[in-house]
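Below is a filled-in request sheet from our internal design queue. Each sheet records the structural input a requester submitted and the sequence that came back. We keep these sheets so that new team members can see what a complete request looks like end to end.

REQUESTER: design group, bay 2
PRIORITY: normal
MODE: inverse folding
CHAIN LENGTH: 103
BACKBONE (tokenized):
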């Protein structure tokens, strides 16, 4: 289950709606709304990952998530809007973070 909320952009998502989505094995997400390439980070955790892609991902189930696109060699040339991606859950203790990998 992923909670959605309203954002101040051109598109609003229903406030407080719950959507059942895939967890683990089933692909979810079919394209990004927008993305940015982060080339510099001052936080020690993220510093080792630059450059990396931060993207809005539209899930097949409806919600839009802000996440990372992983599994790419060169963010400058390997990423484009509308690219098909699948969810990949990265465990962090009791939680898992949804990341996305190109299909």
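RETURNED SEQUENCE:
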């Amino acid at each position: 289950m992923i909670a959605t909320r309203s954002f101040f952009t051109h598109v609003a998502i229903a406030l407080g709606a719950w959507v059942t989505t895939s967890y683990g094995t089933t692909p979810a997400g079919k394209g990004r709304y927008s993305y940015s390439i982060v080339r510099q980070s001052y936080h020690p955790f993220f510093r080792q990952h630059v450059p990396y892609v931060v993207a809005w991902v539209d899930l097949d189930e409806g919600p839009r998530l802000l996440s990372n696109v992983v599994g790419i060699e060169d963010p400058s040339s390997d990423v484009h809007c509308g690219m098909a991606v699948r969810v990949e859950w990265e465990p962090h203790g009791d939680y898992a973070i949804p990341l996305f990998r190109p299909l």
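SHEET NOTES:
- The longest strand covers residues 85-92.
- Residues 1-15 have pLDDT under 50 and may be disordered.
FILED BY: M.R.
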